[in-house]
Amino acid sequence: MRNTDFLTLEEVAENLKVTRQTVSKYIQNSDLNAIKINKSYRITVDDFKSFISENSTASEPQIKYLRKTRNCLLSYEDKIDEFEILNTYPKGDFQVIEQNHGDKENVFLFGDNYFVLKKLLEDYTGKIDLIYIDPPFGTGQDFNSLDNQAAYSDKLINSEFLEFIRKRLFILRELLSDEGSIYLHIDKKIGHYVKIIMDEVFGFNNFINDITRIKCNPKNFSRSAYGNYSDMVLYYVKNRDKQIWNDIRETMSIEKRKELFPKNHPQLGFYTTNPIHAPGETKDGDTGLEWNGLYPPKGRHWRYSRKVLTELDNKGLIEWSNTGNPRKIVLAKNHKGFKIQDVWEYKDKGLSFASYPTQKNEQLLKRIITNSSYTNSIVLDCFAGSGSTLKAANELNRRWIGIDNSTHSYNVIKKNFEKESIKCNFLEYISRD
Ligand SMILES: C[S@@+](CC[C@H](N)C(=O)[O-])C[C@H]1O[C@@H](n2cnc3c(N)ncnc32)[C@H](O)[C@@H]1O
Predict the structure, then answer these.
(1) How far apart are CA 316 and CA 388, in angstroms?
(2) H or E element at residue 287
């Protein structure tokens, strides 16, 4: 156990085999030192150990607090302790630049997201259902707009970049609601390191998918390497199995419909047929008996009870071949769409068609927002860039909060949102840190 680790009140209770209330009493009586972060207590491992050694009534604990990682962490210089990240408070405040409506959300916050996110903890801890972020990728480059204005700098590289992300991820985790999800868009040069950081922050159990996003047309460069035409979106949740999951489906294309439902019925529309029997013989049951003068073929049984088969037949949903072979009619209009897989093709517009360098495809954002949030959920993007996430969230009737520290981002969002009549308040974080 590292001395910098800390435990929650629940973990202390579990270790000591006592209730949460008992641990609260230890804290109230100042027997156990704890620090209150927002509404919950954190106990450093050192404090916990000294409580054990000083308190003869507490039995030797079985130290089995929840490990979030697979017993390995990225190690680099200047890695700040989670506790310290979450226990320093920003001194600054928001100042209104432009007020266009009376709500708290649907807002763009101009400033360094580290301080802005910390400030948001005061009002939004546990309230954000969905976070999408597309941070700089640690490329070491500066990005300019089409008309050569400086958009943003991506000069942090290697461990400095990883620590930059890690610090923000801890705060983002606190902002997420119990049903919340976070999608982090990153390239494949650094993405696998970010995965380990996300395991550390969210717990590897809360990792859901590594989505491969096809970002452009195949590349034909001379380098001795396979063309890199994809990047990755790492998808984690606050609590596995509690996350908002709307189970959206991919609709069937016309080509796929033609392939899967090639026949056309004058009343029922496009359809295909399936056998009404399946492998395995039923010895005594209904599905092995004679139906309509037929028995299931040898070694097989009816897929449905004979009552259901008759109902299907009466509804015209059994197709009889010329040789008297019955098959079930399956209608294209009843198809629920395809389960979405983890390779997504959403190419970005070239810079000449986009309002911001590295602007992401709006359809990709809409898929994420539709599946992982409800109407009226709060969606947060703290690397807002062109405001593409905010715009998609707005169209889908979600509330939204965008943050960016680039003047170009601020200008682009202001101009585009005005043009598209998207009501947005603009605030600036004035730092006194
Ligand atoms: C890759 S771009 C995001 C593009 C965006 N997803 C879009 O579709 O337009 C990254 C953005 O993060 C912003 N950024 C970088 N560091 C930041 C920080 N510390 N605080 C706030 N924004 C930051 C940059 O200004 C830039 O706009």
Answers:
(1) 49
(2) none
What is the number of the ligand 1 atom nearest to the C-alpha of 137? 1
- Residue 184's φ and ψ, nearest 5 degrees, are -115, 120
Confidence of residue 61 (pLDDT cuts 50, 70, 90): very low
Confidence at 146, pLDDT banded by 50, 70, 90: low
Q: Which residue has its alpha carbon closest to ligand 1 atom 2?
A: 385
Rounded Cα distance between 421 and 403, Å, is: 20
Tell which CATH classification among 3.30.2170.10, 3.40.228.10, 3.20.20.70, 3.40.50.150 matches the domain 84-207+234-244+355-430: 3.40.50.150
What's the DSSP call for residue 297? P
**Residue spans per domain, the chain:** 6-66, 84-207+234-244+355-430, 254-334
Q: Give the binding-site residues of ligand 1, using a 6 Å CB cut-off.
A: 112-113, 134-136, 152, 356, 358-360, 383, 385-386, 388, 403-406, 409
Centroid of ligand 1 to alpha carbon of 241 (angstroms)? 30
Ranking 81-95, 295-309, 366-380 by mean pLDDT, the lowest is 81-95
